[in-house]
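Board notes (copied after class):
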Amino acid sequence: MTKRAALYLRQSKADDEGIDRQEERTRSLAAARGWTVAATFTDNDISASKPRGAATAWGRMLAMADRLDVVVAVDLDRIARSTRDLNTLIDHGLALVTVDGEIDLASADGELRASVLASVARFEVRRKSERQVRANSHRAAAGHWVGGRRPFGFEADGVTVRPAEADAVRQGFRDILTGIPLAAVARSWNEQGFVTGQQRQARSGHAGEPSPWTAQSVRLVLTNPRYVGLVRYRGEIMSTPAKWPAIVDDATYQGVQAILSDPSRRKPGRRPQALLTGLAVCGVAGCEATVHGGANTAQRLRTYRCRGSLGHISRKADPIDEFVEAVIVARLARPDARQLLAAPSTVDTTALHIEAVAIRERLAALAADFADGLLSRAQMLAGTERANARLAELDVALADAGKVDKLGELIAADDVREVWDGYSTDRRREIIRELARVVVHPVGRGTRTFRPESVVIDWLS
């Protein structure tokens, strides 16, 4: 019976032997042996030293192993870089033949020879990886980018700023400081046409397309110290400043870190769609429940209703929203509006940053002195504890400085209404939350006109 052969082709680097050339050589070998080529499997830009899942050509080949007898590859490195891969082929009952020399996995001698060759290949992969890790560690310590996916806000070299994306990053930091949720930042970036550097997976139905922004991917950007001009490598922040420019200042960065690390932000539930959902409270005596948005489907009207009782309030939402927004805008347009803000910061953030850099360098020096035997373990631990305690104090001070004057942009505007109208609902909600407590009272039956006195706005400061 003629053997059924599968051609396995793989190319992981541009300078590898091309796929077309591999197919030509493996097909010639199959023809010379009189085998029927049942299928061809190609993994492009896939490393044999990394796991290959069911969605790869390797996975599809194993899935149809019961319809194959032998796998043909150019050489062993193309198909297996570990004894695990060889055992996988054996477990699936597949023989392996390479153009550069036959390996018979059905015999003990052939299995031993293949295992030795695979072990050597694995050794070479690990040695290369260790050299690469050491080289990357030295580069990171010197403030260089060690490569990878293009960082958002920068060109492919990881150093040159991409202006439009950098502006989006700055706005994202500002949004978080003013209370805008991560999901709203993601929507804004998506609406502006920005995409992540990651491709969508096959199960999404859009395989290969750029992934849109999500709250989680935005969080990864806004918690990355690269945007404040620092290098993070394998979880450690280097003491040497990065070779690329910072996109935001230290106070802004630390302020956002403090906000995003707050456990109270991780609350389940749907994002409010209406302006006053979860903000305004019911005005019925003794009821402190918030209102939520609803709809009168018969009249196609948005409404606000009390969460505590259906019989308390059910009112048209649009007139309430318009009134509250008008009062807020009028208050922010007054000359004394700045009194609503936190006191202006007198913190010298530049000095704090210089001190923080010096402490990080001191920590690196302590570690080096301990490794060289110049310090005892007790001395090293004592010095590290003091340095880390001061570094924590500096981080808190920088975070507080980043939270000051959240409404500065709005208050400084010549036309407050124009700026307000340009804000998203999420941002308007956070400004209202910052400034006032809104109480919505019920109105009598038959009331058809909006009564301003039925919506009370209590200023918080």
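Comment from the instructor: The first strand starts at residue 4 and ends at 11. The mean pLDDT is 82.
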